[in-house]
Amino acid sequence: MKMKLFFLGSIAILLFANKAQAQTWQSKFVKLNKAGNLTYVPDAKGDIIPDFSRVGYHQGDKAIPQVKVVKELSSNGINDQQQIQGAINELAKMPLNKDGIRGAILLKKGTYEIPGTININASGIVLRGEGLSTKLVATGTGQRKLISVNGNGKPKEVPQTRTKITDAYVPVGTKFFKVANAAQFKVGDDIVVFRPGTTKWIEDLKMNQIEAREGTVQWNAEDYGLQFERKITAIKGNQIFIDNPVVMAMETQYGGGEIYKYTFDGRISEIGIENMLLESAYQSDTDENHGWDAVWLNRVENAWVSNVTSKYFGYSCVNLATYSKQITVISCTSLAPKSKIEGGRRYSFNNDGQLNLVRDCSADEGRHDYVTGAKVSGPNVFYNCKSTNAKADIGPHHRWAVGTLYDNIITDGDINVQDRGNWGTGHGWAGVTQVLWNCEARKITLQNPYASGNNYAIGIKAEKSEGRLKGRPDGMWEGLNGKGIIVPSLYVKQLADRIK
Description:
mainly beta; Pectate Lyase C-like; Elongation Factor Tu (Ef-tu), domain 3; ten-stranded parallel β-sheet; 4 helices; Right handed beta helix region
């Protein structure tokens, strides 16, 4: 009898295991091999879903440090901004240690009144609170940033270093290509991989034919040269290997590509904003004459914003501008923005930079909660983030963002990757190589642009939508409303494979 029960129990376990196995599936684009590592299946052109694992602080190779406190401040309600700014300026004069750090300023529990903007313009400075009990308030009126982290200048091309990429087609996901002359480069060089905008490309995208209305601007080729910051990892003859993948194909029919060395002397690094509540004063729910960005970063690399909560700002909790690179935004929350609910407002976590990571964040009452802007040169990642009471959509917003992973994003609103047509002043195609992985939304639109690549929706739970403009090519859908995707997070698995 015992043997029979054991046998029946074994069959039940086996049937359950087979059923569970039947409910799991893996993508045809990204598969697990026998060793349990990801393999990537190229399409007819050789394009693959790229590796997104080298984003965020030091490309995920270093943990965010616990920086030693060198100065403590307490609020007094009289000159809070001056004393915080004074401490930052004093710390900026101290030497950097071997890790590029000067130290942390601890803001003790209390309310700090900030009538203007706190500016961090030097490397190695951390501004830390004691959690929600440390509250900085943007008092008074005026649209402004409460905390601004900003270096100076912009990238400069090193003269006589530009050389042509000679491959006829460099596929998406590739980390190497041939150039006309590699002799002037060495391993470790910082380079720009330049993908020019051309008239033929604009014409093939039909972005010179946007249905006109008042204010519509057709796309101009000279405005769409894309600059991808990379580092050389190896050189073999005239073949160059780079640290991060190509996220938009280089095609001779559209001008091919070039590389050149660059410098960015004014960019700062090793900045942290940690553990605090940031609020804005306001007069009404639609008031717009008050704090606009809680934390804004530009001309900075290898920095972080962690455990920051914002309330009542008109635009963002964290705004990563064009020259922000390798920033990690983690465990931050955007609450109760105050503004009109219309364009140019409530972009809770905005990213216009590259190689940035926004993870484990949440937003409520925003419009575009996890969003990129125009000509954004990826890869970039939004991972494990939530949006509630959404007033508009998540996704690339306008004018061609390249190489973004939206991984485990949950929203009660929509996620859209589409031709936005004449919205704004001519938003047009929002982006390419946009990957939606295991996300949940009310509705999702996913369209492929007429040229230059694909967009992907894999393991999505949502109602499929045609989008604003009908008749556009459908994106690459797989496993819509299915369960049991065998790789629940592409970013986490890619990172795990890399750091083994």
